[in-house]
Recover the amino acids of this structure.
């Protein structure tokens, strides 16, 4: 029943949490589309293994709004529907605000925030027409608690902890009651729960998966 | 649509999509007027309007609200029809501007004439 499979679109699915989510949705019998700037070994492996079956990848720069919209339209037209959007793509931007280049601030906002809104808007058109849909935005503990050197990153409320400097990671781990950073699968499991039928009455919520650091 | 629709066909398609939403909300509506207010007269919510826009984008292949028109300027059925007509026939947009400029020039001339008379 291949046409009955739901469709998940994951931004930034070429590595890290995004790659884990792509694999997780495929394991759960979704058809999966993902976009990233570059083709990683994970993407190459998936394209070869799937041979176009249930997996679609596009080379898209998050700063290119028209390309983002075109990718969503292509996915929707090609697969007939979009059931899940996970806004996972993001870039880390470290450095204190007074000495940061303006173009780096603009890039962080473009990729971490504007791209997520553009993707949500484009996907919502398909979700409105089919009468259902689920959008999950991957954020960061920095969206809730301020830390030095991540002002812009915190403002955009996105990206992956794994992209941060070792010093930042150690500092976060020290402050976390569970004494460590989250594993990728621990975050991915929360996304799979939110997009599952078991979470059908959950909407508009923020689920914090942080080992207790923001409690 | 395989061929470009006419202005009348665009109006008919837009009316059809609005009537389809109204049929689900309040029952069949026999006829729509261009002056009917989408919210005040017909009772459409912003989400209803977004649904209509999504359906029309799929059918007509254009989204006037991506760049051309602000959705907040659309109050009536006629406004919505014109947005799609202008998106599919850009010369209407230019024609509309020229008309507006000509009207403004005429108003300015009238004001100048009045001042001279005083």
């Amino acid at each position: 029943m291949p046409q009955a499979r739901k469709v998940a679109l994951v931004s930034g699915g070429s590595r890290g949490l995004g790659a884990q989510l792509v694999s997780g949705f495929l394991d759960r019998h979704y058809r999966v589309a993902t976009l990233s700037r570059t083709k990683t070994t994970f993407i190459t492996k998936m394209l070869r293994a799937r041979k176009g079956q249930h997996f679609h990848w596009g080379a898209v720069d998050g700063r290119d709004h028209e390309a983002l919209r075109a990718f969503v339209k292509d996915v929707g037209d090609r697969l007939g529907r979009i059931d899940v959007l996970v806004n996972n793509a993001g870039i880390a931007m470290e450095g204190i605000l007074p000495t940061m280049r303006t173009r780096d601030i603009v890039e962080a906002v473009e990729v971490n925030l504007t791209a997520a809104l553009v993707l949500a808007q484009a996907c919502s058109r398909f979700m409105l027409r089919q009468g259902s849909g689920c959008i999950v935005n991957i954020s960061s503990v920095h969206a809730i608690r301020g830390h030095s050197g991540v002002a812009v990153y915190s403002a955009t409320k996105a990206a992956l902890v794994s992209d941060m400097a070792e010093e930042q990671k150690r500092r976060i781990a020290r402050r976390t009651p569970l004494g460590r950073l989250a594993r990728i699968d621990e975050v991915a499991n929360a996304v799979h729960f939110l997009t599952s039928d078991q979470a059908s009455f959950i909407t508009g919520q923020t689920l914090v998966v942080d080992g207790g650091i923001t409690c | 649509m395989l061929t470009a629709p006419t202005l009348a066909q665009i109006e008919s398609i837009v009316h059809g999509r609005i009537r389809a939403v109204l049929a689900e909300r309040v029952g069949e509506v026999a006829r729509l007027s261009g002056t009917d207010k989408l919210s005040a007269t017909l009772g459409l919510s912003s989400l209803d309007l977004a649904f209509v826009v999504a359906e029309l984008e799929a059918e007509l292949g254009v989204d006037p609200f991506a760049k051309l028109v602000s959705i907040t300027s659309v109050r009536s059925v006629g406004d919505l029809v014109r947005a799609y007509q202008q998106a599919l026939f850009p010369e209407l947009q230019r024609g509309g501007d020229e008309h507006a400029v000509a009207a403004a020039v005429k108003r300015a001339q009238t004001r100048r004439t009045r001042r001279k008379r005083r």
Chain A touches chain B at residues 69, 124-126, 128-129 (CB under 8 Å). Chain A has seven helices and five strands. The mean pLDDT of chain A is 87. The CA atoms of residues 136 and 205 of chain A lie 10 Å apart.
